[in-house]
């Protein structure tokens, strides 16, 4: 299978190369590096416009002029690929994945967070219009973004702390929402956009409406509303019998099998409002209000039946206690109010000055009710509430300057970022017990002893500077950057916080100077080489520093880690690029050294002297090396192809003296190739996309499950019968292939105990089988 995948990918790559050579062999005019949008259409061959980034350098740059690997996903691509959520967002981005929550501790079956170049979780900074998205905690999602109002997504691969501060040690995902100018067509004072999209994967129906008005030459308004209704996902290629794990669930009592998600109803609503005011030609003020609200109601059926898991040694355990029902609700909310300013003064030291202030409270709330019969026949009803929230007040100032110094040209970006954040955690449980005849036995509301989370506040104050230096008439670009970050986190435990004996909560304060140096040398008008050195810094968060729990026993306790060191990374990257009027390519290699890498739930000797406890701990080192490539060729008037690929190799040391072992986050060879045909005069576009991955061959221990290789094909098409209407359809995983995407969240062993097979089946990590999407978009 692996050989066929590599051969198929090689043939596609070879096809792109042959097409490129054929284009070079034909006489053609000299194309500019970035052709203007107004260039006449009557040229001899197609011209491809180069993507533009505004996040990677905190300034507008052509993508191939940035000494880093950056992905820009435009609004057009989001629509043409019918992107459903953040998991869909990375479907065609090798080396970037989004985890799926499928364990019993999170029965809502949602997305987790991004993994970039092998590292994920809170090591990836996520932003919406510059506003931070809350941290993930144990079994908690970071999926706090729906995509109907997003006009572009930029993904920086590798550390971005020099420009964006703590948490961006593995990369940055930046979402940018639409402005009134994106909806109002040229020559009009208003614009409307409406869309509807259906996805068979989870029966999702998303309806969106956006309106924008130019009230006066200086004032524009945008209003948007989107609603999504969905059910649980269907994994048509997951095995009901649990596959290699088996399925010990009590299906005969109404439990679901091991290849099925819990029944679920989802309702998501999004609101976006913007007011853009330009009181003068040099000043723009933008006021933004955003509401994200997603509710999921689940009927958890995986554990229906006796609470004792049957095993081969005990196939008929006692029937009591017995769980009759478990229902839950998860509500995710993110609110944002932001004021952004852009001023272009007539000062020698500043071309433009940007500032922003944002207030964004975000919350994840889970409520549940369980009914069970106890061993003595009494009826127990238990209500649980778990809440995790963060409130961010952020402010920033950025000054852009350009000047000449001798024979060099400079583009200077410098400024300040400040942030105050408050993290709070709420957990309580109400238990009511009745006799079989309904007589009350007990009624108590307590904080479960199994988890103690100290609230905290966080203060951050950063200063940054970057200078893009152009030498040799623009052939050589040198871009150094520095950022000083000061971070303080202070525990604020509530009265019900139960400290773990021997561990004292204390304030932590850390500072760091992170550096970046990028170099681009243009060999000629077509080819360039680049190099990048970048550092990253991440402060431990409140959960890792201050969380503890008690098992009620001398061991098996979770203890805080107040002495954790910040994670740091040094990354090196180099590459070769080529740009043509009809396409481009980029090929690069990277190496990253992570120190003080924080691992969750590390075994340590129990304080009682017997058994083990668990905590968070710094790994000695993680090393990741890889290659990445991308290319796009428009080789005929109606035909174009693209290719992107990655391969990663990682090792880790769990302690200073431990041997090097494979790092599970590294991605095997993965490639995505597409073939696109368009007929603009008829409003038609068809695209075939293939994803190819080799098998996983290296894991930290031999008993970890290693998925095989796969090849998956998608077919997408659109038709624009009128100027205002676009219809879209797509078939995904056309051949209904069974496969697993790597890396998987956590570590799944080749075999599992009955309790693991019961609560966390491997089958729920299979990728979706054949699904289809339909959509329509109307603009006025």
From TrEMBL:
It is a multi-pass membrane protein. A motif (TonB C-terminal box) lies at residues 763-780. The keyword Oxidoreductase does not apply. The keyword Oxidoreductase does not apply. Residues 1-22 form the signal peptide. It holds the Pfam family Plug. Residues 24-46 are annotated as: Disordered. It is found in: Cell outer membrane. Keywords: Cell outer membrane, Membrane, Receptor, Signal, TonB box, Transmembrane, Transmembrane beta strand, Transport. Residues 63-171 form the TonB-dependent receptor plug domain. Residues 290-734 form the TonB-dependent receptor-like beta-barrel domain. NCBIfam families: TonB-hemin, TonB-hemlactrns. Belongs to the TonB-dependent receptor family. This is TonB-dependent hemoglobin/transferrin/lactoferrin family receptor. The lineage of its organism: Bacteria, Pseudomonadati, Pseudomonadota, Alphaproteobacteria, Hyphomicrobiales.
């Amino acid at each position: 299978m692996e050989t066929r995948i590599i051969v198929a990918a090689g043939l596609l790559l070879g096809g792109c190369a042959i097409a490129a050579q054929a284009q070079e062999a034909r006489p053609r005019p000299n194309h500019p590096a970035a052709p203007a949008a107004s260039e006449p259409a009557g040229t001899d061959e197609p011209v491809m416009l180069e993507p533009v980034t505004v996040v990677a350098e905190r300034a507008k740059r052509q993508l191939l002029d940035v000494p880093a690997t950056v992905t820009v996903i435009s609004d057009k691509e989001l629509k043409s690929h019918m992107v459903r959520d953040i998991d869909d967002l990375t479907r065609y981005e090798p080396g970037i994945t989004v985890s799926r929550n499928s364990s019993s501790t999170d029965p809502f079956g949602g997305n987790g967070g991004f993994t970039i170049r092998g590292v994920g979780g809170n090591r990836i900074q996520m932003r919406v219009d510059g506003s931070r998205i809350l941290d993930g905690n144990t079994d908690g999602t970071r999926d706090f973004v729906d995509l109907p109002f997003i006009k572009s997504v930029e993904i920086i691969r590798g550390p971005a702390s020099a420009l964006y501060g703590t948490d961006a040690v593995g990369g940055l995902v930046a979402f940018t929402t639409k402005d009134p100018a994106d909806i109002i067509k040229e020559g009009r004072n208003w614009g409307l956009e409406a869309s509807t999209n259906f996805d068979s994967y989870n029966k999702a129906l998303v309806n969106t409406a956006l309106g924008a008005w130019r009230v006066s030459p200086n004032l524009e308004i945008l209003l948007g509303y989107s609603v999504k209704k969905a059910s649980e996902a269907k994994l048509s290629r997951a095995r009901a019998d649990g596959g290699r794990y088996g399925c010990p669930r009590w299906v005969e009592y109404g439990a679901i099998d091991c290849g099925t998600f819990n029944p679920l109803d989802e309702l998501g609503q999004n609101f976006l409002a913007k007011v853009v005011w330009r009181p003068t030609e040099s000043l723009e003020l933008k006021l933004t209000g955003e509401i994200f609200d997603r509710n999921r109601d689940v009927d958890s059926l995986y554990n229906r039946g006796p609470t004792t898991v049957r095993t081969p040694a005990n196939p008929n355990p006692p029937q009591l206690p017995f769980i009759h029902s478990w229902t839950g609700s998860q509500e995710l909310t993110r609110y944002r109010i932001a004021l952004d300013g852009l001023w272009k003064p007539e000062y020698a030291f500043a071309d433009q000055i940007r500032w922003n202030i944002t207030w964004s409270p975000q919350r994840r709330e889970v409520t549940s009710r369980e009914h069970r019969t106890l061993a003595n026949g009494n009826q127990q009803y238990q209500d649980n509430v778990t809440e995790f929230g963060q409130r961010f007040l952020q402010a920033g100032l950025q000054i852009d300057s350009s000047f000449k110094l001798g024979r060099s040209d400079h583009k200077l970006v410098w400024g300040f970022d400040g942030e105050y954040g408050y993290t709070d955690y709420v957990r309580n449980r109400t238990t009511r017990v009745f006799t079989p005849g309904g007589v009350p036995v007990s009624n108590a509301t307590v904080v479960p002893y199994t988890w103690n989370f100290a609230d905290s506040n966080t203060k951050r104050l950063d200063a940054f500077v970057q200078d893009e230096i152009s030498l040799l008439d623009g052939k050589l670009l040198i871009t150094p950057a520095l950022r000083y970050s000061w971070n303080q986190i202070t525990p604020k435990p509530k009265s019900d916080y139960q400290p773990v004996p021997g561990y004292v909560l204390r304030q932590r304060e850390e500072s760091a100077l992170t550096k970046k140096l990028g170099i681009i040398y243009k060999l000629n008008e077509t080819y360039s080489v680049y190099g990048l050195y970048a550092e990253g810094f991440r402060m431990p968060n409140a959960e890792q520093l201050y969380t503890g729990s008690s098992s009620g026993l001398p061991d098996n306790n979770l203890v805080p880690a107040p002495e954790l060191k910040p994670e740091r990374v040094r990354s090196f990257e180099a590459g070769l690029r080529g740009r043509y009027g009809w396409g481009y390519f980029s090929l690069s290699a990277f190496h990253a050294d992570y120190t003080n890498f924080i691992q969750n739930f590390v075994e340590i000797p129990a304080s009682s002297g017997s058994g083990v406890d668990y905590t968070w701990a710094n790994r000695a080192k993680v090393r990741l090396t890889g290659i990445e490539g991308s290319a796009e060729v428009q080789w005929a008037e109606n035909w174009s192809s693209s290719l992107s690929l990655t391969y990663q190799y990682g090792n880790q040391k769990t302690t200073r003296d431990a041997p090097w072992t494979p790092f599970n986050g590294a991605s095997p060879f993965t490639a995505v190739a597409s073939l696109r045909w368009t007929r603009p005069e008829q409003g038609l576009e068809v695209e075939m996309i293939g994803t190819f991955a080799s098998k996983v061959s290296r894991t930290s221990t031999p008993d970890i499950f290693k998925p095989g290789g796969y090849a998956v094909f998608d077919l997408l098409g659109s038709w624009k019968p009128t100027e205002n209407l676009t219809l879209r359809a797509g078939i995904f995983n056309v051949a209904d292939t069974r496969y697993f995407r790597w890396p998987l969240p956590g570590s799944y062993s080749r075999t599992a105990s009955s309790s693991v097979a019961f609560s966390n089946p491997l089958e729920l990590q299979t990728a979706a089988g054949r699904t289809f999407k339909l959509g329509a978009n109307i603009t006025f």
